[in-house]
Amino acid sequence: MSETSSPSSSSEEIRDSLPDDLNASEFVGPYQFPDNSRRRTPGYIYVAFAAACFALWITHRDGEQVLINNGIGFAALLLGAFGLFCLTSGWRMKIDEKQALVAATGAVGFAVGHASAQQVWRGLRSRPTWRVLCYSSENPPQQRGLVLVDAIDGSVIEHMVQENPETDWREPTE
After folding, report:
1. Residue 59 lies in domain
2. pLDDT tens, 47-63?
3. Most exposed: 120, 141, 151, 155, by fewest CB within 10 Å?
4. What is the pTM of this model?
5. What is the pLDDT of residues 66-86, one digit of tens each?
6. What φ, ψ does residue 158 adopt, rounded to 5°?
7. What is the pLDDT of residue 25?
8. Do 44 and 78 belong to one domain?
9. Is 109 left (phi over 0), alpha (psi -120 to 50) or beta?
10. Which residues pair with 174 in a beta bridge?
11. Are 94 and 101 in contact (CB under 8 A)?
């Protein structure tokens, strides 16, 4: 019988990894969220491929070509549409999470203790928005608020404030 060789050692394996600007686990210092305008780069690539497919389809659609058919025209249409979507949804964010926290503090109307910001998207064109969860500064917090802040112009889109239902932090008695 022949022996099968073992797979290569783990140091030689190819593994997926995050780009340096997205890998937060090895980053020291304040984290900078990536800008949504990065979506424009693949958008330009999709539009370029759509133009190439359309040019092929227009010049070779006489029916004698086997590999160039109406599917190439359909691919040009889909790639062009998706490329335009990427270009129009590649918003440049002008408001970072710290500015969103300041806007949220003004909207909730109480002194904020703990807060967190999460980047989300809204609408058909994926407009970037900060979702900020705030707790009042008392111990335990008496109020909490949820604020949506537009990441393009810093306007407060929506906000909700309520009494914190988790105010009783005492240990349960038996």
Report:
1. 36-88
2. 999 999 999 888 887 76
3. 155
4. 0.62
5. 777 888 899 999 999 999 998
6. -150, 155
7. 67
8. yes
9. left
10. none
11. no
